[in-house]
Design a protein that fits this description.
- The structure holds 2 protein chains of 2 kinds.
- Chain A is an alpha+beta fold.
- Chain A contains 7 helices and 13 strands.
- Chain A has helices spanning about 5-10, 15-20, 35, 90-105, 125-130, 200-205, 255-270; strands at about 50-55, 60-70, 70-80, 80-85, 115-120, 145-155, 160-170, 175-185, 195-200, 205-210, 220-225, 230-240, 245-250.
- In chain A, strands 4, 5, 6, 7, 8, 10, 11, 12 and 13 form a 9-stranded mixed beta sheet that branches.
- In chain A, strand 1 and strand 2 (about 60-70) form a beta hairpin.
- Chain A is globular and about 60 Å long.
- Chain A starts with a helix and ends with a helix.
- By secondary structure, chain B is mainly α.
- Helices cover about 70% and strands about 5% of the residues of chain B.
- Chain B contains 9 helices and 2 strands, in the order E-E-H-H-H-H-H-H-H-H-H.
- In chain B, strands 1-2 form a two-stranded antiparallel sheet.
- In chain B, helix 3 (about 50-70) crosses helix 4 and helix 7 (about 145-155) packs across helix 9.
- The longest helix of chain B is centred in the middle third of the chain and has 23 residues, at about 80-100.
- Chain B is globular, with a radius of gyration of 19 Å.
- The relative contact order of chain B is 0.09.
- The chains are: A alpha+beta, B mainly alpha.
- Chains A and B meet through helix 1, helix 2 and helix 3 of A and strand 1, helix 2, helix 3, helix 4 and helix 5 of B.
Chain lengths: ~270, ~200
């Protein structure tokens, strides 16, 4: 038997095994947010507000509860600063052109959905320099920086309405501790008042706590149940200087103390 | 009520609804498939081909194949159905490229690992057909614990790298490597016991 025979034979694998890796453990490199996309959301009840809070008088962050097939979930809403594009680097000009090109070249048969520009960076520094936005800040934590990415959203005229970045810290020495920090900034081209961020899935939200640090930043902390991989998860949402942040902490039991210590540094930093 | 799935990039149609659109020969079926699964199929193809342009071409061929096959096909799992087409096209594409020049890279690494438990010799009389081999692999997968099966599938179906699998499943790279090593060994014995010339 040749390796090739085996590889082709594997193509007959049962469908359920092919989709299985994406059904229960949902952190992925393609699009980390896919984890929420995978939640079958049969919306049964209309939403009601559970938290309304003010980070600064003009910014608001709140969560609306809904019921899905899998249980209770939350949508995240925010009113944020709308930054001028001049606050970002000149690279946005090329991105505008790239996004227009996505729409021009768009063919349903072949193209990725237009309007979403994405780039991976092997370090935080490279992502920060590329986007050149002072509003995205990341703490120096006692855990190695792994990589970063930038996502830009725009319309067919190249008007950029939203710029986001993901910063990923990872420590796999004797256990697992992974931290994703997502930062999202709206631009003046964002023509709605309320920004709907994404959904917190039932298995992730666990219990909700609020915390205000000495700098006056208010955090909304969802302490999830242990995932099926045995790792604990904590999601932290907050607004800082008009930017929406979301920190996603995943850690194994042996890293619990380290995770708590790093989380404390994280909460004190912003 | 029509079921919708909410994602960061909008609202997706249920698979059954997309398949209905294919049945009615509406091109919207393709854009909805693209919207819902485009990134996933692209990733499947790119892991194998390790080249964005080739992967795009492969995904576009995948859409053409889906368009031509539904109907009469009516897959229960659209995601997996098209992923199989995409993977198959990518592997055939790669085979053609390899005929020209051996590629190297991650895909080659997966082939090398598989060669650890298959002999690499051609069997002209092929005691078992490809389908039987596929069935044996499926039976083996069924007996594997779920976490090990996911690791195996991510590596040998999706051609993901060990660090990617570790990140996706929140495990250490060492634990993924060890699992793959042990699973390959088990599979070798399993196939041997069932008369496959490994």
């Amino acid at each position: 038997m040749k390796a090739e025979d085996f590889v082709f034979a594997m193509n007959e694998t049962d469908d359920k095994y092919i989709t299985e890796p994406f059904e229960e453990n949902k952190t992925g490199k393609i699009i980390p947010f896919k984890k929420w996309a995978a939640v079958a959301a049969c919306i049964v009840l209309s939403v009601f507000m559970v938290v309304v809070a003010t980070a600064k008088p003009e910014y608001r962050l709140w969560f609306e509860k809904t019921v899905t097939d899998d249980g209770t979930a939350f949508f995240v809403f925010a009113e944020l600063e709308k930054f001028p594009l001049g606050d970002f680097s000149e690279n946005t000009k090329q991105i505008e052109k790239d996004i227009i090109r996505q729409y021009v070249d768009y063919e349903p048969y072949m193209s990725s959905l237009p309007g979403h520009w994405y780039r991976y960076f092997p370090s935080f520094k490279e992502a920060e320099e590329f986007i050149g936005f002072k509003g995205f800040v990341t703490p120096e934590l006692d855990i190695p920086e792994k990589d970063a990415s930038v996502s830009v959203f725009g319309d067919s005229f190249g008007k950029i309405s939203r710029i986001g970045a993901e910063f990923f810290y990872l420590d796999t020495n004797e256990g697992y501790l992974g931290i994703q920090i997502f930062a999202d900034a709206l631009t003046v081209n964002f023509d709605e008042e309320i920004f709907q961020f994404n959904m917190i899935s039932p298995e992730e939200y666990g219990t909700l706590k609020e915390f205000k640090n000495k700098k006056g930043t208010r955090f909304y902390i969802f302490e999830g149940e242990k995932s099926k991989t045995g790792n604990s998860r904590t999601a932290i949402y907050f607004i800082k200087n008009g930017v929406l942040y979301f920190g996603n902490f995943a850690y194994s039991e042996e890293k619990t103390e380290k995770a708590k210590s790093v989380m404390e540094d994280f909460l004190n930093f912003y | 009520m029509e079921k919708l799935i909410f994602g960061r990039e909008g609202v997706f149609l249920e698979d059954s609804e997309i398949i209905r659109l294919f049945g009615e020969r509406k091109e919207e079926a393709l854009s909805e498939t693209e919207k819902k699964y485009g990134a996933y199929y692209f990733s499947c193809a790119k892991n194998i081909l390790e080249n964005e342009e080739d992967a795009k071409e492969c995904v576009s061929d995948t859409y053409l194949c889906i368009w031509n096959s539904i109907p009469p096909q009516k897959p229960e799992n659209l995601k997996a159905y098209a992923a199989k087409i995409c993977r198959n096209l990518a592997l055939n594409f790669l085979r053609k490229k390899k005929a020209e020049k051996r590629g190297g890279g991650e895909t080659e690494a997966v082939f090398d690992e598989i060669s650890e438990f298959v002999s690499g010799t051609e069997d002209p009389e092929k005691s078992f057909e490809q389908k039987e081999l596929a069935k044996a692999i499926d039976d083996f997968l069924e007996k594997l614990p779920k976490e090990k099966r996911k690791i195996f599938i991510l590596r040998y179906w999706y051609f993901e790298t060990v660090p990617e699998i570790a990140k996706r499943l929140e495990k250490t790279e060492n634990s993924v490597r060890n699992t793959l090593f042990r699973t390959r060994k088990k599979l070798k014995d399993y196939l041997f016991e069932r008369g496959f010339e490994t």
